[in-house]
Amino acid sequence: MGAVSGPGSYRPASTADYIFAVGLFIFSILCGRMLFRNAQRGLMVSLINQILQVVYFTFGAYGFQYVAGLRIGFGFDMVGAWVFKFRIALSSFQFQIGTDTGQKFIGINLVALFLIFG
Fold first, then answer.
1. Which residues are CB-contacts of 11 (< 8 A; sequence separation ≥ 6)?
2. Strand, helix or coil at 116?
3. pTM
4. How does DSSP classify residue 98?
């Protein structure tokens, strides 16, 4: 995680970045807990949690990736030529605003899609 304070200058992740990441993971834990206590309400908030995990991307200076649990996904790296990529990951978080990485990638988390529609 990180942000840019000016053209080409990188700064470490701020406290707000960490609070956002920790907040998402706490939300994920609460979703699981709510499934045990009130299944109907738990399914609704878990659906929101899964929707946040379906698409992950990085386009130049902007990126978002959130995985709470397991991600088995595929996507396309669009730098130069379109290259198909298959990715597996455990819980992770990446949020970029203003940090130009030069990457262009978009992917779909198949596990999240299965939990939504399966």
1. 2, 3, 4, 5
2. helix
3. 0.82
4. S
C-alpha 15/C-alpha 24 separation (Å) is 14
CA atoms within 13 A on the CB side of 102: 2
β-strand 2-6 against 83-97: which pairing, if any?
A: parallel
Nearest CA to 93 out of 67, 63, 56 is that of: 67
Token couple for 65: 């990736």
Report pLDDT digits (tens) over 13-72.
778 888 999 999 999 999 999 999 999 999 999 999 999 999 999 998 899 999 999 999
Tokens standing for 12?
């470490």
Secondary structure tally for the chain: helices H, strands E:
3, 6
Count of other CB atoms within 10 angstroms of residue 25: 13
